[in-house]
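Sample entry (389 residues):
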Amino acid sequence: MKKQKGIGKVFIVFMALIIGAVGGFYGLTWLTLPKTEDVQVGEEIFFSKGDENLDATIDVSNADISIHFLELGNKYTGDCTYIKAGDVDILIDCGSKSNSVSTISAYLENYVTDGILEYVIVTHAHQDHYAGFATSEKIDGIFDLFECETIIDFAGTANGKTETALYKNYQTKLNKAVENGATHFTALDCVEEKNGASSSFDLGANITLNILDSYYYKNPDKSNENNNSVCCMFTQKVSETESNNFLFTGDLEREGEEYLCSMNELPKVDLYKAGHHGSRTSSSKQFIDVIQPKTVCVCCCAGSSEYTSVPENQFPTQEFITNVGVWTDEVYVTTLCVDYKNNEFTSFNGNIVYLSNKESYNVVCSNNNTKLKDSQWFADSGRVWPTAT
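Predicted structure, serialized as tokens:
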């Protein structure tokens, strides 16, 4: 009997040591890792992989409005667009991972000299669009690093989204920004012009920001987060009858584009940020034939297997090229995947900057100004450019 008691004591001590070790490990992990599913922000800055000394600053002083499509410092596809309209600074999205924050903030600091973003638009609750706003308490995100005056975000989310760590982090950071003085509207607030919001914001210099109406603001798509995207148009008035138009649709997909056309009077656009990174589920023929874009910018890591191993469905897809290529050959891409498994990527065009005055525009890229159809990747990919109409 005494022997059994001795064995029991040894077993209890042994189990206590195991529990203590496991508890210590998880406690250390909780203390040292960010409270998010994303990787932690590092100090290393990549403006373009393999050419880290590249000067990312482009002179925008002679442009009435400049629109910057940013590389994000990693192999992942994501969106982040910075816009300078006169003295007004605007940011649309901040992907692709939380470790993109260092790259993005370093770029913004070249242009946002007063530390204030007058407008921030968060299109939808996908990591590759809002991770930089949804960092943990241990990581500074865009809402921490810049004073944000007006924040406009998505009106609804898909099933289960509100239970994720990333979404909860976003709400925490958003609420803190509001406490610090930011004004917050949803896209639905804007189109219904309620809670003090407006559907049109005067940016000065004959430039307006217009929040477009979408079916999914009132009826959130519970199965497809992409359709919940905030859609907006920047309009630069040229004369009483003419304007330059710059369109952003987040990751809106085909069915959402149909609603967008029926619920808004969409003009032909001078610049279109390719929907859903140049996927085959966005930029539908019917939609593109309405907006007839002159210049298209694709925010993606071209040829990446991140979302699919099927080459023809990797961004930018053949279907996307077929639809936009009949209207323009001015298509530019931010980043190029070299070897996804080995974390190798490089610049395609790099940071793409669209510079517009009333009667002229120019596209300047940090790496090169080669159009997609003239690139080596396009030739190697087997993609085919369509015959223009």
